[in-house]
Amino acid sequence: MAAAPPPSAPGGPEPPPPPPLQYSLLLQHLVGEQRRPRAWDPAALGGIPSPPRSEEQKMVERAMESCAFKAALACVGGFVLGGAFGVFTAGIDTNVGFDPKDPYRTPTAKEVLKDMGQRGISYAKNFAIVGAMFSCTECVVESYRGKSDWKNSVISGCITGGAIGFRAGLKAGVIGCGGFATFSAAIDYYLR
Q1: DSSP-derived 3-state class of residue 104
Q2: Least buried of 44, 73, 134, 163, by fewest C-beta within 10 Å?
Q3: Within 10 A of 71 (CB to CB), how many other CB atoms are there?
Q4: 157-179 per-position pLDDT tens digit
Q5: Is the pLDDT reported for residue 97 higher than 80?
Q6: 40: which DSSP letter?
Q7: CA atoms within 13 A on the CB side of 132
Q8: b/e map 159-186, b = 16+ CB within 10 Å
Q9: d(Cα 119, Cα 149) in Å, to the nearest integer?
Q10: DSSP label at 39?
């Protein structure tokens, strides 16, 4: 049992009272700006600990996070998706292989396949360019802002749509900027 502190001498100075507990300071440390992040150790939680990454793994991770890799991946993905979309739309189009000089002639399979291939390549190139432009501008905007949120896709959508639309004039560029930014916001809202 601990001994009680001796009472202060009569007529002597009394010890200062303890400072009052300030809940605002306590909240700053618990949920505010002075909160320190916890280091979660998977082994302490019963999980499987992951070994530290090697230099090769870090190098590959840095390469895959670069803007050039993201743009190249979007370009290849856009090319494949655009080619498939072009072949599909050519397959359901009734004018594929149609010769305007002789409208009553039935096109051969070779002519139909040739037109389908041409349309597939055309769509593939367009999708690849748009995908690369959007991915590259989104990565540059994200790097510049230092944040990863919905605003990056809206800004890059506006830049991409505006750049594509400005080939047809200022009005088309503004409409392209607004349309592509709206579409990017809707897709980002749906996917997040």
Answers
A1: coil
A2: 44
A3: 20
A4: 999 999 999 999 999 999 999 99
A5: no
A6: -
A7: 14
A8: bbbbbbbeeeeeeebeebbebbbeebbe
A9: 36
A10: -
